[in-house]
Structures are given as C-alpha cells and as structure tokens.
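Page 42, continued from yesterday. The earlier attempt failed because a stray header line got pasted into the input along with the sequence. Redoing it now with the clean sequence only.
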Amino acid sequence: MKPLLLASCLIVLVSAVIAQPGRQTGPVIVSPEVSNDGRVTFRLQAPKASSVFVSGDFGPNAEMKKGENGIWSVTVGPLAPEEYVYYYMLDSVRLLDPNNARVKIGYVTSTTTNLLNVPGKEPAFYDVQDVPHGEIRTLLYKSKSNGVVRELTLYVPPGYDENPDKHYAVLYLLHGFANDQHSWHRYGRANDILDNLLAKKAIDPFIVVMPLGYGGAYINGDGTGIAPAGAGRLVGDADLYQRDILEDIIPMIDTKYRTIADRKHRAIFGFSMGGGQAGRYGLSNLDKFSYIGIMSAGIGGANTELLKALAADPKKANEQISLLWIGCGRQDFAFTGAKETSDALKQIGIKHSFIETEGEHHWRVWRRFLRDVAPLLFK
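This time it went through. Structure tokens are written below.
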C-alpha cells in the first residue's frame, strides 16, 4: 500500500475520536506553533481519545494533555533551529497531524511523518536564498539490466543550459532505506545546499544524479519489485542496483548530459543503506569512481572480500582514490559499523577521512555532511 493511501486510511480509522479540520466549528487549531524562543506547541482535537503522544526526532515522546473542546496539547523545547519530523500516537494508532500540510513521505509507510521547521535568526545553509538556482529534473528510463522502467532525479547547476560548451563532473548521490529518488532534494535539500555553496564560490558546479535505490524495483513507490530480506525488512536487489548504476544510468547520463565522462570527475556518495552501497560500489569499481563517500554506514571489517581485494594492492588503490570519506554521528546506531570500516581501512593501509560528529541517524546529520564534503569534490 502506498504511503499516502495508508495515511488516509489511518485518518479514516480514527475519525470516531478526532474532529475533522474541514468540518471544525470550534476554534481554529494551530499546530505546530513555533514561538520566537524555539518552543513548539502541538495540538490535536480528539475529544473521544484516551491518550495522545507526539513522537519526533527532537527528543523523547511527549504526552499531550486534554483541554477545552477536546483539544490535546503539549509544548516541547526550546529546539535548535532545524528541520524536524514528528507524528502522533492516538490510543496506540500512528497518525499524521491533520492541521499540518507539510508531510514527509518515503518508500514505505512507516516513514510517513509531518515536517516541522524551527527557523533561526539567519537563513540556514539549506534554506532557499536569493541566489542563482539550479534545476531538478526527472528522468524515466528503461533499465535493460533490471528489465523494468525506473526513475531518477537529476540536479543541474545554475547556468547549465546557458553554457552549451561547458562540461561537468557528476556526483551520484544515493539514499537510505525507506527513502526514494526524491528524498535527497525534498528532505536533504541537496539542490538548495549546492545553490548556496555555488553562490559563495565554495564549490565548482557539478551535476548530481539521485537514483531509486532498490534494484529490480519499478518506478512506483509502493514496494513493487522489492524482495523481503529478513526481519520483515524490504530491500532491493543490491547486485541489480549496482548493474543499473554502472550499465544503465552512467552511460545514459554521459550521453544525455554534458559530463566529463571519466573516473576523475565521477563521485558516489550515500547515507545509511545508500552509504553502504556507495562504499561497496565505489571501492569495487575504481575504474569508474575516484571520489567515494559513506555517511552513517559501514562496509565491514578487514576480512570482508572487498577489503581483502583492496589489501592485495593498497598502493594502487590509494593512487586511484582521490577521496574516501566516512562520516557518522556518535549517537548513531551505525557508528560502530562506520568506525569498524575506518579501522579496517587503516589496518590495510587505505587512506581515508573519518569524520565523527554529534547526531543520530537523521537528515540533520546528512544535510551537514553534504554541505561539508561538497567543497572537497573534484579538486
């Protein structure tokens, strides 16, 4: 079932205990309400509910209190200026905030949440600013290696169409589990981050390709074509995904767009599931990529076949790698795996950077990683 369809079903399920905003006859409900000091008040009208909690990536679950007109509310914070996600638990039923139209969707229903923005005094590095803007483009293509029609999202920097003689390096930017080909620009704000960096002359312009990360999957964001892989998790076929990138996507991008089609001008980065994929695909195809980035993930220790292969000739690998970058938040459940990979690379003599930051497994970390690593690319 598609995420938005499931969300609609949940709203119908709780219609007996929650007042529908479109039919509201009482006071206007503002939720979330962000105060100047960063405190956030959540409200939900559910006169027949027995308990309501708000759950978000800003802290522990907060219990809401029932007030007049059956309106439940709670104030949290102050929160640091940032973009957060949240949802309600109404009598153990997960529910979106019906008063907030900003919704984050993904490739599976469990990641459908509301978005919350706590603004700062100055624009954030990922905010849309008054600078030249690139374009987000969508490409549908028949993946011969996967045997299905797939979709990817592309960022072309400002001035791409106006400079027909200019050619560009390419960053292949992979998403994590439960995300899709739109997540890096919708929630990672990749295009806005790069626009702002370009305006500051912190980076040279390059193209970004954001593929759908589940090998064998059709374009539909409903799990079609994804096989179960233990513990109820759904993942794509990793080998098919690698073939899609190498055999279909890279040749297509190099044909359709003005790229500098060599390994020195090609990077592959990703986070979480996509971080592991970027590490494995990049390091096993150093004839294709020279910049490789692993965010909030690892690729195993020194005994893995990939690292054994690198250990066979570390001098050659180091000559081929322009940048091998690993970053992870210390509070992230993936930190142990990321550190293990870094230690293993150090043990076999592969040069790399390992960046430890504060933060858990969420977009607040990955947006900053993109901001920090982009100026290191294609130098």
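Notes: Confidence is low (pLDDT under 50) at residues 1-19, 227-234.
Reminder to self: strip header lines before submitting.
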